Amino acid sequence: MPCPVNGPRAIAEFIYWGEVRVSPDPNTCTDDEWADYVFNRNGAPGIKKEWWCHTPSNTWFIAERDTLADRVLRTWLPGTEP
Amino acid sequence: MFSTPTDLHSEYDVVIIGAGGHGLAAAYYLARDHGIKRVAVLEKGYIGGGNTGRNTTIIRSNYLTPEGVKFYDASVRLWQDLAEDFDLNLFYSTRGHFTLAHTDSAVRTMRWRAEVNKHFGIESELVGPDFVKRACPSIDITCGGHAPILGALYHAPGAIARHDAVAWGYGRGACQRGVEIHQQTAVTGIDLVAGKVVGVQTTRGPIKTSKVLCAVAGFTPSVTDMVGIRTPIYIHPLQAMVSEPMKPWLDQIFVSGSLHIYISQSARGELVMGASLDPYEVHSTRSTLDFTETLAAHMLDMFPFLSHVKVNRQWSGMADMTPDFAPLMGKTEVEGFYLDAGWGTWGFKATPVCGKTMAWTVANDKPHELITGFSLDRFRNYSLTGEKGAASVGH
Fold first, then answer.
1. Contact B234, B281 (CB under 8 A)
2. B222 touching A, CB under 8 A?
3. What is residue B245's predicted lDDT score, i.e. its pLDDT?
4. B212 membership: H or E segment, kind and range
5. pLDDT recorded at residue B387
6. Contact A39 B379 (CB under 8 A)
7. How many domains does chain A have?
8. What distance in Å separates the CA atoms of residue A30 and residue A28, rounded to the nearest whole number?
9. What pLDDT does residue B234 have?
10. Mean pLDDT, chain A, as a whole number?
């Protein structure tokens, strides 16, 4: 996994934190929309943007990864999307 | 063993997607118990080639929630005379199942499980380290000194079976009763009219049907996408491996949540070993060296004398996980679309009861009483069925 700060490192140094998702506004959304956000996931294969953390340096970043081939396409720090 | 139908008919009463244990069991009970014989089981690969052929074959009912305990107990009862039912040797072997506790909090969970289990009449006891050592003298009760075994949940009916034979037995039984199993036939779409199932598109042409049962484990999200249903299912690989065969020395099944391992010895003498889920989403069945190294290291903590034993094979399956570690079963918001999914890492033992209850559910178009706690609605109502403490290791 190429860490945007530390370069390529062994996958065992990283934790995976799931797909990048946008939270609905809890003050205005319906109960169904909130339950959908809390529980439901996009479980089908595809190219996904995901949160990862390089644990030795506590670097949180986003990886774009093909979940079918298990191949990382690119990574970046939040807010610096290429 | 199976008849191989050449052509798809244009219409069936029920189409089952997935010819694994669960799908074939549902077909078998639909034909046998409900007299519904115009059933097609569609399989994109081959019979039993998914998680039915990729699990570690452990059968037990010592779960944590009342819903789980009742359900799995019904399954164990079905297992016990299944070989006779099929006239096929399933190598069903009652071994006794130990879930080891290495911490005080694990002991507390084991006691909780034992009490829930006994309440429902299931043989399940909290036992001390001496009992474990007497049952299996080869075990290092201190686990190398850093994870001493403080006790265990002992479940005498815990068993293993030959997983391929389960799929074959159900498949053959279903075929004999008129069910068609179409291998090498992938579903590419599901036709809906006004929110109801009316047909299925396949790589071999369209089929009309009003009822579809989806029993496809790690492929579930791709199929639910075809009917526009959102689910909490996420897919992580679960890996396993076997050692070279050796003389029988391990009668029991051992599971350790702290060391993230489960192990039994098969009728062929191989040690069948599994560990926890891979830590991130992958939609393929690739194997990793990380897994082998970690599992081997933990095995040696428990059984140091295995240090020269070789690993023969390793493999992986795609586990369809749910947030509460209970399955997703029953009707859905799409009329005629039934789901038997969310079987994550714990589906093999449930094969008979899933077939039986899903066949009932499809035939009567209402959920069988044993599966009402597993409906998809529970994630809309925040009424989860928390099975995490008993479903698996290392979560």
1. yes
2. yes
3. 98
4. strand B212-214
5. 81
6. yes
7. 1
8. 7
9. 97
10. 96
CB atoms within 10 A of CB B119: 11
CB B59 within 8 A of CB B95: no
Answer yes or no: do A68 and B235 touch at CB < 8 A. Answer: no
Q: Is residue A71 part of a domain?
A: yes
Q: What is the value of ipTM here, to two decimals?
A: 0.94
Q: Which DSSP helix (H) or strand (E) runs through B250?
A: none
**CATH code of residue A50:** 3.30.2270.10
Question: In terms of Cα–Cα distance, which of A52, A43, A47, A45 is closest to A1?
Answer: A52
How many residues does the structure list for chain A?
A: 82
Relative to beta strand B253-256, strand B93-94 is unpaired
DSSP states of B99-117:
EEE-SHHHHHHHHHHHHHH
Q: Where exactly are the structural domains of chain B?
A: 14-55+164-232+323-391, 94-157+234-321
**B17 forms bridges with which residues in the sheet?**
B42, B214
User: How are beta strands B187-193 and B196-202 bridged, if at all?
Assistant: antiparallel
pLDDT of residue B257: 87
Closest approach of chain A CAs to the CA of B322, in angstroms?
9
Residue of B nearest to A67 (CA): B282
Residue A81, domain member (yes or no): no
Window 309-328 of B: residues touching A by CB (8 A cutoff) are: 320, 323
**CA proximity to B315, closest of B96, B56, B116:** B56
- Kindly list the residues of chain A whose beta carbon comes within 8 Å of any beta carbon in chain B: 11-12, 15-16, 18, 32, 35-36, 39-45, 48, 50, 67-70
- Measured CA to CA, the distance from residue B116 to residue B148 in angstroms comes to 26
Give the pair of three-digit tokens for residue B211: 């009822």
Instruction: For residue A36, give its domain range.
Output: 2-76
CA B249 to chain centre: 26
Closest chain B residue by Cα to residue A17: B280
Residues of A in contact with B225 (CB under 8 A): 44
Query: Given this model, what pLDDT does residue B3 score?
Result: 79
In-domain check, residue A58: yes
- Whether A82 maps to a domain, the answer reads no
The two most distant CA atoms of chain B are separated, in Å, by 65
User: Tell me, what's the pLDDT at B395?
Assistant: 42
What fold is seen in the domain B14-55+164-232+323-391? FAD/NAD(P)-binding domain (3.50.50)
Distance CA B15, CA B187 (A): 10
**How confident is chain B (395 residues) per 10-residue block, as mean pLDDT?**
85 98 98 96 96 94 90 92 92 96 94 94 96 97 94 96 95 95 97 97 97 98 97 97 97 93 95 94 95 95 96 96 94 97 94 97 97 94 82 55
| Residue of chain B whose alpha carbon sits nearest to that of A51 | B280
Q: Which two tokens stand for residue B392?
A: 């698996």
Q: Where does B94-157+234-321 sit in CATH, by number?
A: 3.30.9.10
